[in-house]
Batch of 4 targets.
Target 1
Amino acid sequence: MQTFLDFEKPIADLEGKIEELRHISNDGEMNIAEEVAKLQTKADRLLRQSYAKLTPWQKTQVARHPERPHVSDYIANLIEDFTPLAGDRLFGEDQAILGGLGRFRGHSVVVMGQEKGRDTASRVRHNFGMARPEGYRKTQRLMALADRFAIPVITLVDTAGAYPGIGAEERGQAEAIARCIQISLGLGVPLISVVIGEGGSGGAIAIATANRVIMLEHSIYSVISPEGCASILWRSGEQAQEAAEAMKLTAQDLLRLRVIDEIVREPLGGAQRGKREAIEAVGDAVERHLLELRDLDDQALRTTRRDKYLEMGRAGAA
């Protein structure tokens, strides 16, 4: 059963009527097919109008939609011969981050990303995509492996942020994230990152300090969640919508600010309504950037990556 967001209620009502009509037998008094076609046209028009003018808060809701493609979907559809690698060789395994080796359209790659899970059991198992220090130390191990064997790295970002629990802090959450960023900046191989849903805080930048950062059209990327920002500024999460407006967290804002390099268009109604099309579009974008980066030597990759992030500060100051 499809999940509808708050602002999609008029669309949900129309699609509900369409579904009802499709289950009514045609007794000759009314042309069911014609009526369904009219309602479908109206629903499509309303969907197009709604998604053409989404507010930052509405985009936040879309980015968090439970039916959007997950990291596991991208890996299953884009990566051949995927071999998962587990554990940080220091503490344990963190299933919030999936990672391993595989082949992407003929290229050997190391791929990793945060998996949120689909139902209650899998969400608990994957800790809702919020990684602990061992998860980030696993990504460090995979990045080091990629660097040693000259294999490009693809990261898929979808997290509300790193896990803030006491145990995670005791095991060095901040140090693990900082070390991820340090290793990312020093990689001598292409690093491409895609924000496929929610890119939150240090949990996102830990695996997104890349040569090229791509965002899906209705994804978000920010230093803190709108609710977290509102709780700090207004001492209440009720102003989350206002915070989202001020934070410039949409793909369109971030492209204008030169924080990201490309926006990948989503199917009408968001990636959740056209999963295969969204996944293929991401694959096409990643392949294009990978081909552009593959001829750069290791020093050029490091230099351009570091310059990219230094330039953000200068652009912001301007």
Note: The chain has two domains: 6-53, 60-317.
Target 2
Amino acid sequence: MHTYLDFEKPVADLEGKVAELKALQAEDAAVDVADEIARLEAKAQRALTDLYARLTPWQKTQIARHPDRPHCKAYVQALFTDFTPLAGDRAYADDHAIQVSMARFDGRAVMIIGHEKGDDTASRLTHNFGMARPEGYRKAIRAMKLADRFKLPIITFVDTAGAYPGIGAEERGQAEAIARSTEQCLAVTVPTISVIIGEGGSGGAIALATANKVFMLEHAIYSVISPEGAASILWRDSARAPDAASALKITANDLMELRVVDGVIDEPLGGAHRDPAQAIANVRAELEASFAAFDADPNADWRAGRQDKFLAIGRTLGS
């Protein structure tokens, strides 16, 4: 059974009835409920299609945070081979919220950097729910410099509510580490691709998402602040998060219109958590298309193009 979000209750009720009928049929083969099962399955599919055709920004936020949504680890294991993991920032510690590895994508050597949230209680605690500390961003900087030295294209997977705001992280220079990581994203000479697979929260996201090509999954979000944080600041009431989500323009379609991202990657009906394999296949197709475009322009100045791209954000909306 799926983990259903609050707004998915009509679908949950229908699919629950289907599950009950299938269990009844399995217990007693003489019971013929196949027609009723087919009718309810069709009704549930229509309900799901209708629901996902008119999602609000707050509902997309809930989908982006779904506990069963595939995270960085799932994409990396499915898309890449020949892993050589890298650990530590060579200064303080290894931050498990950011995972780094050299690997191969369709035979091509690449550098992978991504936020990992974890998929159960133990792994979520290990990865600090994807909220990186300064040493995580310094590890990412080390990986980007290594990739630049050996001419490895960089692929980042962004999925974080934001950088960790704890006292220790602030004492060790959280803001400086984020700024340096963003600066290094801009400085590398190799082509870079970033995919926002869930939450893209604040500077903790942009520190890895300053890339030549930035893609978002259909139900991912990308924002300078969480809806709850914005609601607390604007209205002193975090319960108004749905209002803030609408005002912030955090959805993939909003950000395509604002020219902040370069493309939206389709998700299976009902979100990536309903069919992770299909979501990952869609990401693969976008990565393949991006590398084909990179290969077609071998003399491109990726650093200058990346810098120009980000300097132009917001300047050409009226054109």
Note: The mean pLDDT is 93.
Target 3
Amino acid sequence: MEKTRLLGMTPDQLKEIALEAGLPGFTGKQIAQWIYGRRVRTIGEMTNLSKAGRERLSERYEVGVAEPVGKAESSDGTRKYLFPVNGDPGNAVEAVMIPDGDRKTLCVSSQAGCKMGCKFCMTGRQGFHGSLSAADILSQFFGIDEAGELTNSVFMGMGEPLDNWEEVKRVIDVLTAPWGFAWSPKRITLSTIGVLPNLKRFLDESKCHLAVSLHDPFPEERATLMPVEKAYPIRDVISLIRKYDFTGQRRVSFEYTMFAGHNDTPRHADALLRLLQGLECRVNLIRFHRIPDFPYGTSSQAAMEAFRDRLARGGLTATIRASRGEDILAACGLLAGLHNHA
């Protein structure tokens, strides 16, 4: 019989499971402490539970941490890990650990593949193979070598997080709850192309930072890169965002991958200024990493700097994001769940 995974459950859910197994209700909090506080991998390690209780729990349940099946390390210290989905190593996702001084940020995947079909993204090219459970997403936090040293997380790996909001929300709850990792929401950023119904839920139900994949300010041009523009127009996405407060500690940024001669012109910079006028935000300019069968090339450093400076003159904060892990295909848009790890 396939066992149910406890990873991702709340103390209240664990209390119900404990009661079913004939254990006292307070055992739910103890189990949560073992899983999220002490990071145990097995029920047998929960030594303040009775031996008989542990045996009864183990008949139907397991902690359920999926261990990585591969790892690659970049020359810049970035590490990419390959995780099986629901125990199936043939269906795998990637998580990327990015070191930066005292910070260690985990770029986490929420789906195997992606439905959104962005033309310049390797993940989108591979199609959609299923959404991850909260246990599969949390395994990326538990299974890496740096699990105890992580300071931040970005939901910017494989998949569209807001297309799997229920499970992603469970993970955010674990990360931010006092009984979980007890992280501040400000340590977490969620990146989305702008799935409007669930974007509203994310903004209402969490205090995490938001990053929006924009990539082109002209709707008809954006649609050729990102088919989702037809379903969720970027202007509607920004109209929703304007209803929320980003003048305090919560931040919103816009991701802008630059393609030579296509979206890196003064005309695009000026349109971007008009689109985001008056919104407290920043624009992250991203160097495009060439992929097969895609017509556009990489913008030059000079073009990226000119674009950034034009935005700055218009009052918009823009930065050129440093590329990390490119030599192990861990950079933006290159994650594909391939078994090319050591």
Note: The CA atoms of residues 39 and 142 lie 7 Å apart.
Target 4
Amino acid sequence: MALPRILVLVLAGGAGGRLELLTEQRAKPAVPFAGVYRLVDFPLSNCQHSGIADVWVSVQYHPTSLSDHLANGRPWDLDRTTGGMMVLPPFQGTERGGWVTGTANLLWRQADLIREHDPDALVVVSSDAVYELDYREVVDAHLGSGAEVTMVTTQVEADDASRYGIVEVDGERVTGYAYKPGEPATTTATNEVFVFTPGATLDRLDALEDELGEEGLEDLGSHLLPAQTRDGLARAHPLEGYWRDVGTVPAYWEAHRDFLAAEPPIDLDDPAWPLHTRGGRHSAARVLDDGRIENSLLSGGTRVSGDVRGSVLSPGVVVERGASVVDSVLLPGVRVRAGARVERAVLDDRVDVGEGAVVGGDGDITLVGRAARLEAGTEIAAGARHPDPED
């Protein structure tokens, strides 16, 4: 029996505004994670390990920040003569061309291309979460269910549930769906992985567009998923393992804390399921002089002469003698000069912290934007944003 024809659509075009300064000059899927990786590496690696070769990546905001990293799909074995990776930018020239205003809107705009490809299952995944999942396993269960959509679900904290699409479930059947509800009925959330029956879903989107107009289609949770749920054609597929949405600065910081544990929730070097990424060109990390490291992740090219505790250092980070970095995430090329202190902070690419400067402290997460230069003795308070977006 032939394997089903699966098409994966990776959503990499959102503005990512909840990550604030981290997405001012890069697409959200291009945000670094755990030192050497990018967020988009998670869905692309899942595709490779699931044995899926047809992967389309939808881009829109800051697409050049992704182009070099994607490398035609080579790191994930997607650089193929037939099939493989295809990047979908916004387009003009047909009646469905234009700027994408949500995922349902995107599917409607690309409907002709999807129909031409003629997949048995369409898998739609976001690029702002950390998890492992065999998409083919979800597809196999979907194809035998008679459902029009399978929503992969996870459990979230009650006080955070209003950020997600929330479902009510009877067995496998989804009996209720609410998109970012003010008063969530459950803590069972969709984790932004959906398997659709392509023909029926695209026909439904055409009908919704006739009723609402192309701008009214918006996100999947606005009209499409509620309609499929009302018609009894939605099912749930629970994800039992680790999943964390890192679409906000606090969640991004907390996810790094998870991976500093003695036994991290996902082994990124697991021989059976390694996380693949575009290779770097950095030498080995070096701990120099009086450098001290405690419970931290060091990437290639880092140079540490100071004190680093509970932190993640991306490639090329330098911590000079007498400087301290505590409970922080430093993205590529950051330099913390002698005597400076960084605590509970996220520092974007190439931030230069001057001698004796103080960034953050005991409180909310501090965020410093790309290439900021902090003069000697500067103090950035806990929870601040620098530069201040209000200025």
Note: The chain has eight helices and 31 strands.
